[in-house]
Amino acid sequence: MTRKEISVVLVDDHIHYRNELANLIDSFAEFVVPWQADNGKHLIRQLAQQALPDIVLLDINMPEMDGFETAAWLHAHHPSVKILAISTYDNQKTINRMLSLGARGFVLKDVEPVEMKAALLEVADR
Description:
Layout: E1 6-11, H1 15-27, E2 31-32, E3 36-37, H2 40-47, E4 55-59, H3 67-77, E5 82-87, H4 92-100, E6 103-108, H5 113-125
Parallel strand pairs: 1-2, 1-3, 1-4, 4-5, 5-6
């Protein structure tokens, strides 16, 4: 079975981490990272000019517009876009809040590459 390329947009204010993660995700045959954003406000501006992605890989702690606000906005304005939250925060309250705001999954920033791919595939299939 051949899967289409699934577009993943990364939203994270740490540019070096975001670029490395984009390179990793681009290395997976099923996925492509067409563009990236620094924070929620930047994502919203970019969405006005770019095609909607299939998945937004969304950091929680960002300046200007954090992951919670961004998830709520995405869920309200583009409910077809699937959200996978990513963070260093590993507590149930944070995870539950992101899930209640529309995220379909949650991974830690130190996730192994094979686990990242599995999480993306799982979110894409939901």
